[in-house]
Amino acid sequence: MIKIAICDDEKKELETVYALLTDAAQDLGIVCRCSLFESGEKLLDEIENGHTVYDIALLDIYMKELSGIRTAEQLAGLCPETAVVFITTSQEHAVDAFTLEALHYLVKPVDAGQLRTVLERYLKKTARKKTVEIRVGRDNVRLSEESIQYLESARNGTDIHTAGGLLHTSMPTGLLEQKLGKDFLKIQGGLIVNMHFIEKMTAESCALKNGFIALLSRRDRQKIRTAYREFIFNVTEGSEDS
């Protein structure tokens, strides 16, 4: 199921996009759960306080209070995995959409064909990425592995540091370790690092690209350094072959 937020300060537009999106999903055989919001503030409040995570957010750019662009900027910090689609009456903000890495940019009047393309793009995007499913609040969320920088045990669960911000899940770090791919390395108890995010590894510690430094597990130092050397060798070899 794809969870979608539709945000527009005009009720008629909300209802129109919802009806067209439902038709497009049925044509593709996709199950969608849509939530409608009449302002960017209400959408952000639901995400922040309701702990709701959406796969896709369709945002009208010209909303009266918080614009679609500003809403998308704040959304990126709260939920970096949400794919953003802008809906507007002109191409004026196309550059902003590109900068924010929007999934699509739709010019009104929106039709079912455009929304079908949105769903198809989302499916292709998620199919290309290695993902891991986590529990955030009341929702199951799929994070692309490449967006995860490191994970650490915290608050009876796990803090997940991503390129777009911090997410917390009640899932144990050990359980998440089993779900992650070969690019992740356990540095010490309760700390797992995406090796692409390692800046430097010494005999005793590991420095990440954000400046965070962690001591290597004393018992497993040799094993950790060996795993990282093999990773570097494989990455370098792959670069030379491409």
Summarize the structure.
This protein is an alpha/beta fold and 242 residues long.
Entry keywords:
5-stranded parallel sheet, 242 residues, single chain, 5-stranded antiparallel sheet, alpha/beta
Structural write-up:
By secondary structure, this protein is α/β, with parallel strands linked by helices. The protein has helices spanning 11-28, 40-49, 68-78, 94-99, 112-128, 173-179, 221-241, and strands at 2-7, 32-37, 56-60, 83-88, 104-107, 131-136, 139-144, 148-154, 157-162, 165-169, 184-188, 191-194, 198-201, 205-208, 213-215. The protein has a five-stranded parallel sheet with strand order 2-1-3-4-5, sandwiched between helices. It has a five-stranded antiparallel sheet with strand order 10-9-8-12-11. Strands 13-14-15 form a three-stranded antiparallel sheet, with no helix packed on it. A hairpin with a 4-residue loop joins β14 (205-208) and β15 (213-215). α1 crosses α5 and α2 runs parallel beside α3 (68-78). The radius of gyration is 20 Å and the shape is elongated. The chain starts with a strand and ends with a helix. The model has no long low-confidence stretch (mean pLDDT 87).
Sequence-ordered SSE layout with sheet pairings:
Elements: E1 2-7, H1 11-28, E2 32-37, H2 40-49, E3 56-60, H3 68-78, E4 83-88, H4 94-99, E5 104-107, H5 112-128, E6 131-136, E7 139-144, E8 148-154, E9 157-162, E10 165-169, H6 173-179, E11 184-188, E12 191-194, E13 198-201, E14 205-208, E15 213-215, H7 221-241
Parallel strand pairs: 1-2, 1-3, 3-4, 4-5
Antiparallel strand pairs: 6-7, 8-9, 8-12, 9-10, 11-12, 13-14, 14-15
Helix pairs in contact: 1-5, 2-3
